[in-house]
Fold this sequence. Notes:
This protein has 16 helices and 6 strands. It has 422 residues and is α/β, with parallel strands linked by helices. It has 3 domains: 2-51; 56-164, no CATH class; 166-421, no CATH class. Strands 1, 2, 3, 4, 5 and 6 form a 6-stranded mixed beta sheet that branches. Strand 2 and strand 3 form a beta hairpin. The longest helix has 27 residues, at 307-333.
Amino acid sequence: MRNFFGRHCEYEREQDMTSRVKVSPHHNMDSDVLVLCLLRRRRKRLEKRRLWVHPILRTRNERGEFHSLIQELRLDEDRHKEYFRLCPADFDRLLRMIAPLIERQDTTLRQAIGPAERLAICLRFLATGDSYHTISKSFRVGKSTVVGIVPSVATAIWESLAGEYMPVPQESDWRAIAEGFSSKWAFPHCLGAIDGKHITIKAPADSGSLYYNYKGQFSIVLLAVVDANYLFRVVDIGAFGKSSDGGTLSASALGRALRDGTLNLPDDEPLPNGEHLGKVPFVFVGDEAFPLRKHLLRPYPGRAIPADQRIFNFRLSHARRIVENAFGIMAAQFRVYHRVMELSPCNAEKIVQATTILHNFIRWGHQNSPSTTGSADPSTALNAAGRMGSNTASREALAVREKYREYFNSPCGAVPWQYNQI
């Protein structure tokens, strides 16, 4: 009420000043005209400020998408899923999980936007990548409202779902992942496929070249480990775009844990029917951008290499492509990746967190669905992250790769179809 009375008093002061200008016996006409013009301009500003809600926004409860179109979409599961990437049941389940974190209280002057509508605004932004301006017009809310809703709901999605849909893997989890790669992708002892992608963002203010990557774009880096079912098991988000050539993996939390031995990995043990090779480490598989380490395999370099090395490269590529497919599936679901994110690095990181965990939320329990195919879409703002670290390998790491090469070329580890691919 203080604001109302304050504005009312300002209006009375203007009326008083205007009266004094009119009755002054000694006045300069030019100065009086100037004062009147200034007062008139100020009055218009006050009247504009009194317009608490724009007329278009006043019809939100009747014509906004959430109160009209979306209520109809709930009657058609396929169209609802196309619009939000979630069926109505999954939308409601997600809402129950995050509602306590995104609910806001009504005030005496304004009714708060409810949790369901907040979630709808955020999901629509993720699904389309439309600008905040476009989203605000569709839902008939202010642009500044959308600016506040999207990152806050994205944060709530991550905080509410991460513990269940991307828990920190324990030894038993790593063993289950390895079993999945062995049975589905013929690569035993594989703890996951690893890759990094640049997420293109607008040029951050006063950041210099920190986010400027090798493709001449501004970006943050998403480093991910994916299991045999296309689920993200570990993500590391937010590295500077320029760090692609300087060891993104080594600087990441994942790289540090791998180096320090704090990832809860299983102890070395023989490969299936490969006791003659002795105990072999469990490994992640990556492409040539990654360094060769004891627990991280990369292909043999070069084209003119022996057949046994080509077979190893094929088997590694066969398992590694799962992470590329997972990125492709996520980008197809959330078209925010098809555009440059007009966001700060901090908010872009929140969006990436939300989409990776929503990817798992959607796929959890549907691992055997036909949609487990996909590829990296060249039209997206997801770009290969380039080199992830030094290529200098230790003797131990070289010996580990040699054991896998020998295993895949032996009767105990070979598969018939590998010989058709070299």
